[in-house]
Sequence to fold (215 residues):
Amino acid sequence: MRQQPSSKGRMPTGSRAGAPQERPVTSNRGAGFPSSSSGKKGLESKPGPSSVGASGQKALEEPPEVLFKKLEKEINSLLDKSAEAKLVGNLSGSLSLAKEAVSKEKKLRNLKEDAGAAYQINIDLTYAACVNLGIQYQANGMFEEALNTYSIVVRNKDYPLSGRLRVNMGNIYNTQEKYSSAIKIDIKFNYKQYFFNIFYLFKCVKKQHQYENII
Fold:
């Protein structure tokens, strides 16, 4: 049976005479929207990249300055603990703490260089960590390691007062009965400022019978 034309002389949009049933006009499939079981997901925007970590909380990065101060505090704490351990006779513990302090200080320097903040490197902290390591090596009888550590500091022109470490180096040579080396290392020392070490020098000279080296 033919449908009656509408009041404006057109056939209803839902169907047409003699043609198969077409989709209703309410379908949005032809408009480029994906179909969805809920009817809403097609209109929702996709979420962007998320900074939420596996724990479900946003990972907050510390500013470089905060990280630098945190590491410096940890290094100073390690140096204090290392010295305290040596005082109570825990030599192996003091050496372990000294090594950890040097390792963290090196990490801190690298972080500052990578961040373009090399001008913030604390050379006093570097000096303290290296000298403490040398002292702990010496206390543990690891004389070669101690001499190498002291030598690195003494050769560094950033540390004008590092010459006093030659006293430590001379003491090691004296313990090893390497009196000739002790004399050579002490002659390079500035006795105008540290005259008290003259007595130590004469002691080494007397044992070695090399009085001409003192002139």
